[in-house]
Write a structure and sequence with these properties.
alpha/beta; Arc Repressor Mutant, subunit A; D-Maltodextrin-Binding Protein, domain 2; 3 domains; 6-stranded mixed β-sheet; 5-stranded mixed β-sheet; 9 helices; elongated
Length: 297
């Protein structure tokens, strides 16, 4: 579509909303006669009458009302995107508030944090550790981090990690004292280090999968945390079996401080995603954070 045709549509939207050629001309910075000429040209191209004109006012016809409803939001979106591109010229600054879990910080944010702070020294990040699936809109967070499958469709989601799997881990000493289970069902006979996501919620039931069949097992044990990092630390201390993201346990598996149990039963999950409610509200600082955290494979 040519620029002239776009300008004619913008002129129509302005006149339809202002219900006055004079007021619309002032808003657009053109003369009323030039505006009238643009509207006549648009009506002639479309072959329909869009505006009903009298000596005192202007109103939309049925066809004009339909065009207004369909075109106006598109023109607004284009204007917003152009404005957002212009915002890249500004220096990212201000405070960004994110809700996330400590393992998400460890795996997704911490590796990129030093470079981000160095590149954007005027941005302050506030990271709130919370396993309770906080509503980012109600709690006035800029964004949150969740598994892709747990994000509602009315949110914008940006992948910030690869897919990952859980790993059952324990120390060699624990496995020497208590022979490892042969199946997940035997975990009920072991000391399981559990996690509770919400103070009033249930203890997380460990998820497993085999031959396409998914199921859960609720193991018992002397410890329940609301932080996966403490689950990992307790497993490292030989206090029981922990169920943690494999990537968190990888350094300790490599050194032999931990051993993995039943790896063939442990499922893979969709990667972590940064999610937020409205792209049109994106600030330069937030856009910089999104691009920094974006997973590129």
């Amino acid at each position: 579509m040519s620029q002239a045709k776009v300008d004619d549509l913008q002129a129509f939207v302005m006149v339809a909303r202002e219900r006055s050629f004079t007021r619309a001309a002032v808003r657009l910075g053109v003369t009323p006669s030039a505006l009238s000429h643009s509207l006549r040209a648009l009506e002639e191209r479309l072959g329909v009458r869009l505006l009903a004109r009298t000596t005192r006012n202007v109103s939309t016809t049925e066809a004009g009302d339909r065009l207004l409803r369909s075109v106006a939001p598109l023109l607004e979106q284009i204007a917003a995107e152009v404005e957002a591109l212009g915002a890249w010229r500004d220096t990212p600054r201000g405070t960004l508030r994110l809700t996330c879990t400590d393992d998400q910080i460890q795996l997704c944010i911490r590796p990129k944090l030093a470079a981000f702070i160095e590149q954007y020294p005027e941005v302050r990040l506030e990271l709130y550790v919370d396993y309770g699936f906080t509503n980012v809109v109600e709690e006035r967070f800029d964004a949150g981090i969740r598994l892709g499958e747990a994000i509602s469709q009315d949110m914008i989601a940006v992948r910030i990690s690869r897919d990952w799997r859980l790993a059952l881990v324990a120390t060699p000493g624990y496995c020497a004292r208590r022979p490892p289970p042969a199946t997940p069902y035997q975990l009920t006979e072991h000391s399981c280090i559990n996690i509770r996501h919400r103070p009033s919620g249930a203890v997380y039931a460990w998820e497993f999968e085999r031959d396409g069949q998914a199921f859960t097992v609720r193991g018992e044990g002397p410890l329940v945390f609301n932080s996966i990092m403490h689950v990992l630390n307790s497993a490292l201390d030989g206090l029981g079996i922990g169920y943690v993201p494999e990537e968190l346990a990888a350094p300790y598996l490599a050194t032999g401080q931990l051993v993995e149990i039943l790896p063939e039963w442990c499922p893979t999950f969709q990667g972590y995603h940064l999610y937020y409610p409205n792209r049109r509200q994106t600030s330069p600082a937030f856009a910089a954070l999104v691009e920094t955290l974006r997973y590129r494979g």
